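We were asked to recover a plausible sequence for a given structure. The inputs and outputs are reproduced exactly as logged, with field labels preserved.

PROBLEM: sequence recovery
POSITIONS: 402
GIVEN STRUCTURE:
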């Protein structure tokens, strides 16, 4: 049995954070119903599509965050659409939404309305700043959250400008925190007998994951350095190094530095290192770095990685989006999925990092077509007959294939 078997989730969210949380809950066995607006359902499935003819357009970002869901495509701006949603809330456990403040107020879609229908519903809300505070009425996106949350100030080269991470880090952090909040609320519901609001912002998870750098400033009174690929505390043998055919990351922290310098490089005279307050330390570290660069430049990535691993020094080749697929460890752990997708044939994507011994993750549904499960959802869960479904289609409330 799946860990969340018997739990039903209505995913009303868009973009990445909410859909990622919904996908995680679906991976854990919840019945996740993606409630989508007809026009947005189409546009999101082709947003940021790789180059290619129109017939081959698809959104890799949408596909990556919407497996294990069923799709119900309807217009919530209509009275009948809201009535359908109300019927679904009565038979569901969780609602995930990421409406902007104005849209939430205009539609009246909030936890109070949902609790009047089902007091046990858990209302999981995603927003830029959260549902309280002086800026709660403002909306925002991932990049802005990374900037406001301080992460950009830590990322980049010391003499360069702040640098954006390559992925949507704030979105995924918010999605992870939302998932934890939902699971906690589901557990507490078994004790208190009612649902609650799970209020997650894009901003706060970024701040929560700043390592110890806020304390660096509050305790030491110094601005944490932007260190690029180096260690902020100036560790030798910690960084990105060139090889003959690529690059390798070496992460030799203090307890492994001696092994790296004396045994791998064959330079025992360079160890131990001068103390942090020794004026000769920077020059000494520069010499060590030069020795490491000379050593890696004379080897392939595979040769360097093999030698470092034999010495138990953490190191890894820098994968890209082509070479990641050849990673045997990830493949052995089931991180790669293949499935058929609407005329594209077999596509390959990432799986779930969740491994539960008694309830393994399964892919029950590939990312759905718009409205693929309309009839199935409304007849099974809401008890609608065929005539009622036809009426909803004819009046423009429902749209899609199902």
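RECOVERED SEQUENCE:
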């Amino acid at each position: 049995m799946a860990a969340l078997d018997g739990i039903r989730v209505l995913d009303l969210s868009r973009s990445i954070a909410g859909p990622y949380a919904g996908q995680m809950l679906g991976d854990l066995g919840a019945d996740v119903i993606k409630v989508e607006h007809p026009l947005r359902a189409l546009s999101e499935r082709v947003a940021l599509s790789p180059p290619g003819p129109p017939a081959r357009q698809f959104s890799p970002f949408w596909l990556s965050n919407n497996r294990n869901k069923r799709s119900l495509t309807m217009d919530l701006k209509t009275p009948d659409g809201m009535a359908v949603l109300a019927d679904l809330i009565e038979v569901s456990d969780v609602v995930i939404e990421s409406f902007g403040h104005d849209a939430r107020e205009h539609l009246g879609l909030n936890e109070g309305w949902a609790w009047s229908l089902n007091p046990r519903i858990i209302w999981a809300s995603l927003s830029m700043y959260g549902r309280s505070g002086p800026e709660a009425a403002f909306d925002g996106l991932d990049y802005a959250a990374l900037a406001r949350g301080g992460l950009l100030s830590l990322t980049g080269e010391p003499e360069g400008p702040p640098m954006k991470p390559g992925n949507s880090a704030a979105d995924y952090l918010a999605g992870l925190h939302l998932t934890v909040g939902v699971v906690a609320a589901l557990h507490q519901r078994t004790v208190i007998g009612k649902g609650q609001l799970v209020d997650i912002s894009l901003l706060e998870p970024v701040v929560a994951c700043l390592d110890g750098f806020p304390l660096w400033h509050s305790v030491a009174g110094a601005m944490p350095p932007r260190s690029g690929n180096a260690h902020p505390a100036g560790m030798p043998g910690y960084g990105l190094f060139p090889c003959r055919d690529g690059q390798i990351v070496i992460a030799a922290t203090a307890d492994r530095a001696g092994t790296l310098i004396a045994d791998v490089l064959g330079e025992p005279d360079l160890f131990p290192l001068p103390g942090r307050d020794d004026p000769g330390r920077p020059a000494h570290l520069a010499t060590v770095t030069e020795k490491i660069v000379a050593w890696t430049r004379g080897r392939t990535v595979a040769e360097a990685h093999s030698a470092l691993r034999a010495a138990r020094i953490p190191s890894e080749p820098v994968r890209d989006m082509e070479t990641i697929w050849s990673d045997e460890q990830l493949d052995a752990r089931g991180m790669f999925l293949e499935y058929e997708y609407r005329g594209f044939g077999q596509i390959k994507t990432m799986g779930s990092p969740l491994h539960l011994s008694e309830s393994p993750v399964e892919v029950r549904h590939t990312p759905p077509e718009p409205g693929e499960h309309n009839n199935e959802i409304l007849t099974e869960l809401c008890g609608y007959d065929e005539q009622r479904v036809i009426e909803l289609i004819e009046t423009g409330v429902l749209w899609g294939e199902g």
